[in-house]
Design a protein that fits this description.
single chain, 451 residues, mainly alpha, 3 domains, 4-stranded mixed beta sheet, 5% strand
Length: 451
């Protein structure tokens, strides 16, 4: 057998990179039996996990998951999360990191900013994914143990460098959920009779013969009834979340410790012809989204009441007058945009994104003084009807700029879903803590990092 003191010689008639001795080439490349077995076992394991995962997704679709199945599905999904969004090394506090970058020499900032943006996008995706995992856990089991949800925060926090503030916000969201959950469980236990419970929540005494179906949702008491009674409950409701007074609405009891409730009109004509929602489930999810948005706003935002127009009418200096009015309109518009954001994200539970884009005009822009015309009271303020500067500024800030902000936000949201391949739930979670006017910029960054 030939030795290998010198390199193997190649046949010049063969391709330059083809060895002259096929047997030698095969021997070098052929894996050992143990290596082949290891490779086969790994492939078999991956195939088993893939089939197991797909089987769990099918069971989830048909609502057939056990608690053990659901926990296993979340474990699979978390592994996918780690593949899609790589972990971050160490703690990443955006505020602290940005302060560090500002103190760097100018020539080092560009590279530092690139890494900063990448980590920021990854962490934002992780925070959004965490919200989705928490929501899914609550939807699967309204009474999921608190330690399980806290475990999710820890799991994501370790991998994606959550700082103390980010962990605190996530924990506060969980605490707020359990606080609301406890209230609905206690009032249900206190009033076992459905009619007495409805009377306690709404102040409406429906007759014992009136048909009701009362259930406990995640954070609300859900009341399914026929149209006439749904109308009576709506008329007596305290500041109902408007828009579905015929199909359904959400409100809360009056008092020191209010309890959320949802009313669903089960008249078949309304359900099938009016809303194409035979069971009322889309309407119910729409109203649940409003409740979640209230919870997130309480945690994420400090939305102040718009300042009054102190001194505007009596002010003689044009520049001071302009600044006073623009500040007032800016704060009022911010509050209105927050309400629009609430409605937009809720609407995506009972209609498609293209339908919502088509309906934006009728929902927010037609200025008919309908429930979604949040700024009508300012545009039509009687005391300023003859004030030319007031009316021109209102037209610019409360009509044109307001409309453009909503339109750009929804268009960018559609781009996030279509280009970024996110689900509606994932896209909404990514933007939870962002006002509508920040959506286009935030979404641009997310898509840049993803691509």
């Amino acid at each position: 057998m030939r030795g290998f003191e010198s390199p193997p010689q190649f046949n010049p008639e063969k391709e330059p990179n083809q060895p002259s001795s096929p047997a030698v080439g095969r021997a070098a490349d052929t894996p050992t039996p143990s290596k082949m077995k290891e490779t086969f076992d790994k492939a078999k394991e991956r195939m088993f996990e893939f089939l197991k995962y797909k089987g769990l997704k099918v069971k989830e679709y048909f609502g057939q998951l056990s608690q053990e199945d659901f926990d296993q599905l979340l474990t699979f999904d978390f592994q996918e999360q780690l593949k899609d969004t790589p972990p971050i090394e160490g703690i990443f506090s955006p505020e602290e990191e940005l302060a560090k970058i500002k103190s760097l020499p100018k020539e080092q900032r560009r590279e530092a900013l690139t890494a900063f943006k990448e980590n920021l996008a990854q962490q934002r995706e992780a925070l959004a994914a965490l919200r989705v995992f928490i929501e899914r856990s609550i939807e699967f089991n309204h009474d999921v143990p608190r330690e399980k949800l806290m475990g999710l925060i820890e799991k994501f926090g370790v991998q994606y460098g959550f700082d103390g503030r980010q962990r605190q916000i996530s924990e506060q969201l969980i605490d707020e959920y359990y606080e609301n959950r406890q209230k609905v469980l206690e009032v249900r236990q206190q009033f076992a009779d459905d009619h007495e419970l409805v009377n306690e929540l709404t102040g409406v005494n429906l007759g014992k013969d009136e048909k009701l179906d009362v259930t406990v949702g995640p954070m609300s008491i859900d009341i399914d009834t026929e149209g006439f009674n749904a109308g009576r409950l709506y008329e007596k409701a305290d500041k109902p979340i408007i828009g579905f007074q015929y199909g359904g609405f959400a409100s809360q009891s009056v008092g020191e410790n209010p309890v959320y409730y949802v009313v669903i009109n089960q008249d078949q004509w309304i359900r099938t012809k009016g809303y194409n929602d035979p069971t009322g489930e889309k309407t119910r999810m729409h109203e649940y989204e409003h409740q979640k948005n209230k919870l997130f706003r309480r945690v994420f935002e400090n939305q102040g009441v718009p300042q009054s127009l102190w001194g505007y009418k009596g002010e003689q200096d044009p520049e001071t007058k302009r600044i006073t009015l623009e500040n007032f309109f800016s704060e009022s518009r911010t509050a209105a945009l927050e309400r629009a954001k609430d409605e937009i994200t809720a609407c995506l539970y009972d209609r498609t994104l293209p339908q919502l884009q088509h309906q934006l005009g009728s929902l927010f822009f037609e200025q008919k003084n309908d429930p979604y015309d949040y700024l009508a009271y300012l545009r039509n303020w009687e005391v300023f009807k003859d004030d030319t500067f007031y009316q021109e500024t209102a037209q610019r800030m409360l009509v044109q700029e307001y409309r453009e902000t909503i339109q750009r936000a929804v268009d960018s949201y559609a781009e996030l879903v279509n280009r970024g391949k996110y689900s509606i739930q994932e896209a909404t979670a990514l933007l939870t803590d962002k006002p509508l006017d920040d959506w286009p910029k935030t979404i641009k960054r997310l898509l840049e990092q993803k691509e």
